[in-house]
Amino acid sequence: MTDESNKRFDHDAKHWDGNDLVQRLTKEAFQALLKAFPDLKRQKDEGSQQMKVLELGCGTGLLSFQIAPYVHSLVASDPSTGMIDALRAKIKSEDSPRNVYPLCFTLEDSEDSALPPAVEGDGSDGPRQKFDLTLSHMVLHHIPQLKDFLRSALGCLKPGIGEAFFTDFQDFGPEAKNFHPHSKMEGVARHGIKVDETVAMMEEVGYADVSIETGWRMFKDVERHEGEWDSMGPKDEHEGKPVGEGVELASMEFPFLVIRGRRP
């Protein structure tokens, strides 16, 4: 992510968990993940959780906490110090999962010394841990160099079995730009994910069994024209949309993609 994105999310972190849209999207992503990996529920029921997960762009850990009971361990990473600080504060709660490990980190290299070592206690110079799953939710549209990110995420997976699971909204044409209001455009690298382009990119960097499908659809409030909300009275602290008596907002349905691939 860019410095602009990090500044925005540092600011938004204190209100993040109260954002209804974020909560709804997280719930949908979690259900899509359980559908994609049906063994997770069986393993949880049997107490035999096996999957080691690297989440890239975890925010305050909303999705991390939902997934944690189903997996062996989850490294929850985010480049925003504000988001990671919020996650660390939540982990201190007695009822929080004990297998979530926060990491303030920007993925650029799968062998970055910030990642856990392949062998515990092996120091910072040895090879890094490889994961059964790399996961990101609503992150890809913030990443300027998407191909480099996908390549690095692939390198974090266990050869032969590790899988990537990404979700984001689809770039279905010019109207996809409406997903973000003008006041939230800072740090947005693209207006959604283009299916054919992303499949080609993932295959080019080395993913096998690449698939992209619509995971769910959701309506959200949008500006009728760019900057409409900027001059419309008080705003909510979450999405920057106008609030108050008599406010009428436009709404648009957006498709959200489930993006998968495996490390050969």
Task: Give the helix/strand layout.
Layout: H1 3-12, H2 20-36, H3 39-46, E1 52-56, H4 62-67, E2 73-78, H5 81-91, E3 100-104, E4 133-137, H6 146-155, E5 163-169, H7 195-205, E6 208-222, E7 250-262
Parallel strand pairs: 1-2, 1-4, 2-3, 4-5
Antiparallel strand pairs: 5-7, 6-7
How would you characterize the overall build of this protein?
This protein is an alpha/beta fold and 264 residues long. It contains 7 helices and 7 strands, in the order H-H-H-E-H-E-H-E-E-H-E-H-E-E. It has a 7-stranded mixed beta sheet with strand order 3-2-1-4-5-7-6. Helix 4 (62-67) links the parallel strand 1 (52-56) and strand 2 (73-78). The radius of gyration is 19 Å and the shape is globular. The model has no long low-confidence stretch (mean pLDDT 95).
Classify the beta-strand content into a percent band: 15-25%
Task: Give the overall shape, derived from the CA principal axes.
Answer: globular
Please provide the ordered H/E string of secondary-structure elements.
HHHEHEHEEHEHEE
Instruction: Give me the side-by-side strand order of the main sheet.
Output: 3-2-1-4-5-7-6
Distance between the termini: 27 Å
* Residues in helix, %: 25-40%
Assign the structural class, choosing from mainly alpha, mainly beta, alpha/beta, alpha+beta, or little secondary structure: alpha/beta
How many helices? The count is 7
Major sheet: 7 strands, mixed
From the alpha carbons, calculate the radius of gyration and give it in angstroms.
19 Å
Instruction: Calculate the mean pLDDT score and round it.
Output: 95
* Unreliable stretches covering 5 or more consecutive residues: none
Q: Work out the number of β strands.
A: 7
